[in-house]
Design a protein that fits this description.
heterodimer; A: alpha/beta; 5-stranded mixed sheet; 5 strands; B: alpha/beta; Rossmann fold; Alpha-Beta Plaits; 2 domains; 4-stranded antiparallel sheet
């Protein structure tokens, strides 16, 4: 059994490494994304900004906070700020929770209209812009708010984005590398050829899973080291913990790929199904942007996506130095 | 007991087609058994059911007197009609991969020599010709030094030289006392390679036995080929059967001398006439009323 799995493992790896176009793309894609988004991030002025608003539960008894606050405070500066287009205002009852969101770039600015304080991340260009917009609301009046700095480590956006890109790369590689390949094997008769040898179906599947996870490890390691050297990213948690998250995430994605490949012999259909799975995951797993302020059903849907937990787990280890115990929920979901 | 494979009353029904309809035969050790028939006759389905790829509707298949089990997979070699090779591997790597899947293995050097793979060993699978691909597929089927080898239309689409290469390989396999089950729609191939043939049509075996014996019993006469247009009345005046061809007519006379005399008396131009002994294709035509390659 081991001999047969090892044989297929070797053959599949050779196929992968010799398919230079696919292999190159697997490595090049994450670099391109990070560089591309850095450029877009600096130049794109159409981005929606998110501002957290601290609601004082002692004075505010309704969800319609905007009118109440404005009427209570009679704050023309805040009112002008609230009228600014392309800004979404998200209410928070707990200050520490809101501050945590700010640290993780899930909101761009945090404001407490009652105490007249606001907080921004010093490394966030979006935060800088929103601050300018807030100050613009002063017009000729005296600027009433005093800036407070965030205590603790701030996370640059690219560093926040990096685990998401790695997770997304793992997702595409696992889904297409296994799902699409098995469908191709079935269509062109390679699978049928293997089926008449002593090779058992579970041995074939094991070889595919092990091979893909090994290849994911190699490509992720290269991308990780490359980005660390080029962009200076750091992992603040344990590398072993990160390996566990990537292993479970990769295993989870490979399993999804195998389910897609089951009994399907049309490459076009498989491609459609894989797109159907990967695109929502790409956009709703917080790879690119936070889902703070999104509708509850979107958040619920996101919680069912393996990429959400892979990215969240990796982010917490890489950005915050979380331990495996601290991300037990994400690990459980991936398992 | 030298019976390697025994098939009893095998059926495979699909919703609208009876692909195999009560097929029975047995194959002795060391022979080449040919399943002959046109496209859609049920040859491939029959061997795919025997190979275990397609489940039968009913019937029994015995390998060395017992139901097929793990031993069957270990001891048979299979070459499919259409199989792609693993991409990005060389011929040698592909062969080694398949050898490693089996407990018993052919000698690698011997395999390379038998299948004439010496010159293409390091070639990428994607860059070999059709004939070379068929030889590699055959080598893959022999990777486990099998006792029983299934070859499903191994020479379809090959040029005459590549076809003869394949025939040499099959002869070589037979010389090693291996048992071969071959499907083909080339009667020449069946006549050259097969010790026993079974002619299939519409999922049934309509004749079986050694090719020479079948011809002797049912088709021992001659065929007269004329590249002339001859009207039906004239043809009916000849004792025997006839069939129109694309550019003339083929006559199967009961008596060749009488046939030629009649044609001469009728003033038919015989300058382009061909006379040949009847073959398996004629036998098939006689049994089914249609050409083998139809």
């Amino acid at each position: 059994m081991i001999r047969r799995i090892w044989t297929l493992f070797k053959a599949r790896n050779m196929e992968f490494f010799r398919d230079r176009a696919a292999y190159g793309w697997n490595l090049l894609f994450p670099f391109m994304i990070i560089i591309g988004f850095s450029v877009m991030f600096n130049e794109d002025q159409q981005t929606m900004y998110k501002v957290g608003v601290i609601i004082d539960s002692n004075t505010v008894k309704t969800h319609d906070s905007e009118n109440i606050l404005v009427s209570v405070l009679e704050d023309i500066q805040y009112r002008n700020f609230r009228k600014t287009k392309y800004i979404e205002f998200i209410e928070f009852n707990v200050f520490n929770h809101a501050l945590d969101k700010l640290k993780h770039h899930r909101i761009d600015l945090l404001i407490n209209p009652r105490s007249k304080h606001y907080w921004i991340s010093q490394t966030s260009p979006k935060g800088y812009i929103v601050e300018k917009l807030l100050k613009a609301g002063v017009e000729n009046r005296k600027f009433l708010y005093n800036q407070k700095k965030i205590s603790g480590r701030e996370i640059p956006y690219s560093e926040w984005l990096f685990p998401g890109i790695l997770g997304m790369n793992i997702m595409f590689s696992a889904l297409y590398g296994v799902g699409y390949t098995v469908v191709r094997y079935r269509k062109n008769g390679v699978l049928k050829r293997f089926s008449v040898t002593p090779l058992k179906p579970y041995e074939f599947l094991a070889a595919q899973i092990i091979s893909r996870i090994y290849l994911l490890f190699i490509t992720t390691l290269i991308v990780f080291l490359g980005c660390t050297l080029i962009f200076g990213f750091k992992c603040h948690g344990s590398y072993l913990s990160l390996l566990v998250v990537f292993f479970l995430g990769g295993f989870s994605m490979v399993s999804v790929g195998l389910v897609v490949a089951a009994r399907n012999s049309s490459e076009e259909f498989a491609n459609g199904v894989l797109n159907l799975i990967s695109w929502p995951m790409m956009f709703l797993s917080e790879v690119w942007f936070s889902l703070e302020g999104a509708k509850p059903w979107v958040k619920t849907f996101s919680a069912f996506l393996p990429l959400t937990h892979l990215v969240d787990g990796a982010r917490r280890i890489m950005n915050d130095g979380a331990t495996l115990f601290e991300i037990k929920y994400q690990l459980l979901m991936l398992a | 007991m030298n019976t390697v494979l025994e098939v009893k009353n095998l059926t495979k029904f699909y919703p609208e087609v009876k692909a195999i309809n009560g097929v029975s035969f047995s194959i002795e050790k060391g022979i080449c058994f040919g399943l002959l028939g046109p496209n859609g006759a049920g040859k491939t389905t029959t061997i795919e059911v025997i190979e275990g790829i397609v489940p039968p509707t009913s019937g029994e298949i015995l390998y060395r007197g017992k139901s097929r089990g793990a031993r069957f997979r270990e001891e048979v070699g299979i070459q499919f009609q259409n199989t792609e090779l693993p991409a990005f591997l060389s011929v040698k790597e592909t062969l080694e991969t398949f050898r490693s899947l089996y407990g018993r293995k052919s000698d690698m050097d011997e395999l390379i020599e038998i299948c004439y793979l010496q010159e293409i060993l390091n070639h990428d699978n994607r860059k070999i010709s059709g004939g070379q691909k068929q030889r590699l597929l055959l080598a893959m089927a022999l990777a486990n030094d099998p006792e029983l080898i299934f070859l499903d239309e191994p020479t379809t689409g090959l040029d005459p030289q590549s076809r003869r290469h394949l025939w040499d390989i099959v002869r070589n396999i037979k010389a090693r006392e291996k048992t071969v089950v071959l499907t083909t729609h080339y009667m020449e191939e069946a006549q050259i390679l097969c010790d026993i043939i079974a002619i299939m049509d519409y999922g049934k075996i309509i004749a079986a036995g050694p090719p020479e014996k079948l011809l002797e019993e049912q088709c021992s006469g001659t065929a007269v080929i004329l590249h002339e247009h001859i009207d039906e009345k004239t043809l009916n005046s000849i004792q025997g059967n006839w069939v129109r061809m694309k550019d003339g007519v083929e006559i199967y006379p009961e008596n060749l001398n009488d046939c030629i005399k009649t044609l001469m008396n009728l003033g038919i131009n015989l300058s382009k006439m061909t006379v040949r002994p009847q073959n398996l294709e004629d036998l098939f035509l006689k049994l089914t009323g249609k050409r083998l390659r139809a």
